[in-house]
Every structure is written in structure tokens, then in C-alpha cells.
Specification:
This protein is an alpha+beta fold. The protein folds into three domains: 166 residues, 2-Layer Sandwich (BirA Bifunctional Protein, domain 2); 85 residues, no CATH class; 226 residues, no CATH class. 47% of the residues lie in helices and 8% in strands. The chain contains 19 helices and eight strands. Strands 1-3-5-4-2 form a five-stranded antiparallel β-sheet, with helices on both faces. Helix 12 runs antiparallel to helix 15, helix 15 packs across helix 17 and helix 18 packs across helix 19. The N and C termini lie far apart (86 Å). The C terminus is likely disordered.
Length: 589
């Protein structure tokens, strides 16, 4: 049940609309279902011998405005309180008597007409559709004083939540005042008329978020906005300093032919210029995609390297969120930037789901919790690296690195939902769960090719070698995780362990390290999560490519012996990347 409150100054005009046909002839059988005294004239159900709906409507408006006129200049200029209340499409149809109860409870809750107060404000409730009513009240009491209307929207929301619980209706998530403003009805109708799939407000909000993702400074942010083709207007103080900005879509004009501007603060609370400057106060690093010098790490293509770097940073952000500290609020903001960066550089196959994930998580980045001392530079640096690397291909190493990142982001989104739920942030928790669903769908698309190749590698392993890795896997997995009797479920994991051992790693120790990184209970597919953790830890290609014969691990045996559960080898010495490969040596003369 959703209340929507407006203020106005024309009682008669509101009533004319409510008892009229509507903008699209959507109003059917308009009539009163309740009023301040139960005897208000009803233009929709006039039973007089010679009914005149217009005259009855004028009498109703005059009755509502009586105290306003008596108060004279003491009456508020915006004296009309107008509240529409709508049920969810899945709810049952309420009767007129039930809607009358809803109206009476709401005017009591917000302080217009307290129960038992003979001087309460005058009000009526009009029903012209099955799923909603409109409450119209004039804000002058019988003693000609103004009612106390502080926090009327929050009070109306709270009363609707109580009604939902008592009547068995769909219970909506309580808000906390941090959500972005929804498009108005006029904006939605205009978008439909011109053939837009969304309103300019929604398009601009997403464009501003994407321009902000990983931006180094204010100048770069505004340059990105203009590069997207948006109109940008800065608001300056007398000193010449910028104190705000507005954006507009090209071609979006009002009836006078002037552009329709949206200030950043009206797009979302955190997109005002002061809030953006606070975020830009933590500048990202210069080149987060560059491999570490002197570590022997492979120099992957820039798009793949950016995603691999972001995977490790997202993994650490999930650990911070798991810790439950309020400083994790900054990680949520950084994760939002990371999702915006991935969404605008993703392959075509995953672009729609990732854009939906970024839009959903936008709600999860805002709450009343402020992190004072947290450092967001790592997350912003990862987002910047992805933007600078450009669009990723949906195949090869780019596709595998995208799947690696998405697997971690799914777990991070689930962890964000837990973090919000622990603090009673119902809307943000729901947004995080919705984000995880979109990310899961995108992951299935991105991981199809690399996981298929890994399964093929695993099935091509010698039987004894595969048995040995199977024992290692079963010993390392936590005992409370669901088990499967099908060894084929571990083909990709066995192939990864074989490739890690070929690269000089101890598979037992490496797998245990991957298991211990963080919990696996929230993972939908534990094997996939471990595969990507192992490939990142061992610096293996994210996409293994076609099958090629795997060299046996350096003992000369045809296959390593089966390892007993719980028994691990000593960690090998660090691999030497400069050791020449015997296959590449020149032939003996």
C-alpha cells in the first residue's frame, strides 16, 4: 500500500480532476467513500430529484474551503492536502467500507483529524478505481489553527505498513528517506508519448553515475558527462566558484522549447555537487591495471587485468562487509562505482543484466550510516582501471576474467544484503538481493565458455591423477557443505589444480588457502567459486583455451599419487619465471 502526498491551493480544481474522466478516461464510477462527518455532498452519487454534478461538486468544494475562508490570511497558501493511496496489483480488491477505514486512519495518523477531536480538519476520500483512493483535506482546523503536519509522509507510510500487516496485504519495505526521487506521472506519460523506454530523469541518473565511476577529479567528471552527449550547466556563486550543476538530455524540451534541466540533487541524494566532491576527495590510483613489478606476475591484456585486479578488491570488500563494521558503508559506495564501470564496458551478452544490477545496487549504496575514516581509493581505482581499459570482449581471456569478477561480485552483493539486513535497511537489503540475481544471470552468460573448456580439461586428465585431485578436493571442502557423489562436478576444479601444480604451486595448500579466504555458505556453486579463487591466486589464465597435453608434475611419474586427506606437502619454493622451458631450447648441434 503506497501513499503519495502532494500540497496545493485549489480545492475545486483537485475535485474536478478526481470526479472527471481522468487524463485517459481511466476514472470509472467516481464517488465518495468517506468524509469528515459522513454527510458531505457526493457529486458521483447525487440522489436528488434533479441532480447536477457540477453544482454538487461546487457545494463540496465550498464545504471543504469553509474554514479556509474563515481563517483568511491566517490560512496557509498551500492549504490543500492531497494523498493518493494505492494497493499492490497482487492484493485483493478492497470494499468501499475498507477504503473508508483506510482514509480515516490516515488522516488520524498524520494529524489532520485526530480521533475524538471535534475541531479536526475537513476531508473527503474519493474512489474512481478498484485499486486506489484519493484523500483531499483542507489544512485549517475548526478553531482556525493550522494542524501539526510534521513528517506527514513518514506517518502515512508507517500507518500503511500497519494496515498491510493487519489486513494481510503485501507488506512493502519501509523507507528511510534516502531513496532517489521517482519520476512523476507527467514524466512517465511524456516518455510513453515520445517512445522512450524510461523517463529522462532515470536516463540522466544512470548517465551521471557512470560518469562518476572512477573519475579522478571534478573536471574529468564533467568532461565525461559532455562526452556522453548530455547538456551540462554549472551554477556559480558570485565569487565564480561552482556550487551546483544541472544536466539535460538533448531534445528534451518543455512546451516553451527550452531544455528541461535536472539538478544533480534531484536525480539522487548522493549526486549533488557537494556529495560528489566528497567522493572525489579520495582520488583513485594512476594505473590500477598495471601488473606488479618484480613479482613475476603475468601481464594480461588491459581489459582482463582490470577485471582481475577488481576481483581481488571486491573480495576484500566482501570481507570488510562480513566484519559488520559501519565503515563498510564506504565499500558499498565503491562497489556501486565498480558495477557502473563493469556495466558500461561489458560484452553485449551480459550488458543488459549488468546494467540492471548496477541500477538495483544504486539503492543499496545509500543509507543514513556515514563512514568517517574508511578509504575508498582501492575500489575507485579498480573502477577507473576498468573504464580506462575500455570495452571487454565476451570471449577468450576477457570473457574468463569477466566471469571471475562476476563470481566474486555475486558473493559481495549477498554480503551487502546481510550487512543491510542487520541494520534494518529493508529497501537496501532487497536491492542487494535483486543485484545478486542479476549478477548471477550475467555470470551464467560469461562463464559458459571458460567453464566448458575447464570441464573438458578435467575430463582429459589421466584417471589416477584425477582421482588424486578428487581426494584433495573432498578433504578440503567444509564438511557442512552439500556433497555430491558425482566426480564430474569437480572436473573444472581438478583441471585448475593440475594447472596450478604445473605452474609450481602445491595444490593442497593452494586449495586450502582458497577455501579459507571467506565463507562458502552463500555460494550457489562452490566449485565455480573455488575455481576462480584458485585461478586468481595462482595467476592462471581465466580462459584455459583448447586442450593441450598437461606435463606431469615434476617427479617423472605418470601421475601424482593419491594424497591422503589432511596431509599437505611443504610449500614449494617460489617459481622462477626466468627459468627457460626445455621445449624452447635450441637443438643440440
Amino acid at each position: 500500500m503506497v501513499p503519495k502526498i502532494r500540497r496545493g491551493s485549489r480545492t475545486h480544481g483537485v475535485l474536478v480532476y478526481l470526479f472527471g474522466p481522468g487524463k485517459r478516461d481511466e476514472h470509472t464510477d467516481p464517488h465518495l467513500v468517506g468524509s469528515w462527518d459522513g454527510f458531505a455532498p457526493d457529486p458521483g452519487r447525487d440522489t436528488s430529484p434533479d441532480p447536477d454534478p457540477r453544482a454538487t461538486l461546487a457545494r463540496l468544494a465550498a464545504a471543504l474551503d469553509l474554514r479556509v475562508k474563515q481563517a483568511g490570511t491566517r490560512a496557509p497558501a498551500q492549504h490543500v492536502w492531497h494523498c493518493s493511496v494505492r494497493t499492490d496489483p497482487g492484493d485483493r480488491t478492497l470494499s468501499d467500507a475498507e477504503w473508508s477505514t483506510v482514509a480515516r486512519r490516515l488522516v488520524q495518523a498524520v494529524g489532520l483529524a485526530p480521533d475524538g477531536d471535534p475541531d479536526g480538519c475537513r476531508w473527503v476520500a474519493v474512489r474512481h478505481a478498484e485499486d486506489h483512493i484519493h484523500i483531499v483535506a483542507t489544512m485549517v482546523r475548526g478553531d482556525l489553527r493550522r494542524p501539526r503536519m510534521n513528517y506527514d509522509y513518514r506517518k502515512a507510510q508507517a500507518e500503511c505498513r500497519r494496515i498491510e500487516k493487519e489486513w494481510g496485504l503485501r507488506r512493502l519495505k519501509p523507507g528511510d528517506g534516502t531513496a532517489a526521487k521517482n519520476p512523476t506521472s507527467a514524466e512517465r506519460f511524456k516518455a510513453e508519448r515520445v517512445g522512450r523506454s524510461e523517463t529522462p530523469r532515470e536516463t540522466l541518473r544512470e548517465a551521471v553515475r557512470q560518469a562518476l565511476a572512477g573519475a579522478a577529479d571534478e573536471a574529468e567528471f564533467f568532461t565525461r558527462l559532455r562526452d556522453k552527449g548530455l547538456r551540462v550547466k554549472l551554477r556559480e556563486a558570485p565569487s565564480g566558484d561552482s556550487i551546483g550543476y544541472s544536466v539535460a538530455l538533448p531534445g528534451d524540451r518543455n512546451r516553451d522549447g527550452t531544455p528541461i534541466w535536472f539538478p544533480g540533487s534531484t536525480l539522487a541524494p548522493d549526486l549533488s555537487l557537494p556529495k560528489i566532491r566528497l567522493r572525489l576527495a579520495d582520488p583513485p590510483g594512476d594505473d590500477p591495471t598495471a601488473p606488479e613489478v618484480g613479482t613475476g606476475r603475468t601481464a594480461w591484456p588491459p581489459t582482463a587485468q582490470g577485471r582481475r585486479t577488481a576481483t581481488g578488491i571486491a573480495e576484500r570488500a566482501a570481507v570488510v562487509l562480513d566484519g559488520g563494521d559501519d565503515e563498510a558503508a564506504t565499500q558499498l559506495v565503491g562497489m556501486g562505482e565498480l558495477l557502473d564501470a563493469v556495466a558500461q564496458t561489458s560484452p553485449a551478452a551480459t550488458r543488459a543484466e549488468l546494467a540492471a544490477a548496477a541500477r538495483s545496487f544504486e539503492r543499496a549504496t545509500r543509507s543514513h550510516i556515514r563512514a568517517e575514516n574508511a578509504d575508498a581509493r582501492a575500489m575507485r581505482s579498480a573502477a577507473r582501471g576498468i573504464i580506462q581499459a575500455g570495452g571487454a570482449l565476451g570471449r577468450g581471456e576477457d570473457g574468463g576474467a569477466t566471469a571471475m569478477l562476476l563470481s566474486t561480485l555475486v558473493l559481495a552483493a549477498i554480503t551487502a544484503a546481510r550487512w543491510h539486513s542487520a541494520r534494518g535497511h529493508a529497501q537496501q537489503a532487497a536491492a542487494s538481493r535483486q543485484t545478486a540475481q542479476h549478477l548471477c544471470a550475467a555470470y551464467q552468460q560469461a562463464a559458459a565458455s571458460p567453464m566448458q573448456a575447464l570441464h573438458a580439461h578435467g575430463r582429459a586428465l589421466p584417471e589416477g591423477q584425477r582421482r588424486g585431485y578428487e581426494i584433495t578436493i573432498r578433504a578440503a571442502l567444509p564438511h557442512d557443505l552439500p556433497r555430491t557423489d558425482s566426480e564430474a562436478q569437480h572436473d573444472a576444479l581438478a583441471a585448475t589444480l593440475a594447472q596450478a601444480e604445473q605452474a609450481g604451486h602445491d595444490p593442497d595448500a593452494l586449495l586450502q588457502q582458497a577455501v579459507d579466504m571467506r565463507e562458502l555458505d552463500s555460494a550457489e556453486n562452490v566449485n565455480d567459486v573455488l575455481v576462480w579463487r584458485l585461478r586468481r591466486l595462482a595467476d592462471l589464465p581465466a580462459h584455459p583455451g583448447p586442450i593441450s597435453p598437461l606435463p606431469k608434475a615434476g617427479t617423472g611419474r605418470t601421475a601424482p599419487p593419491a594424497r591422503r586427506p589432511g596431509v599437505h606437502r611443504a610449500p614449494p619454493s617460489a617459481p622462477r619465471p626466468d627459468t627457460p622451458d626445455s621445449r624452447n631450447r635450441p637443438p643440440r648441434r
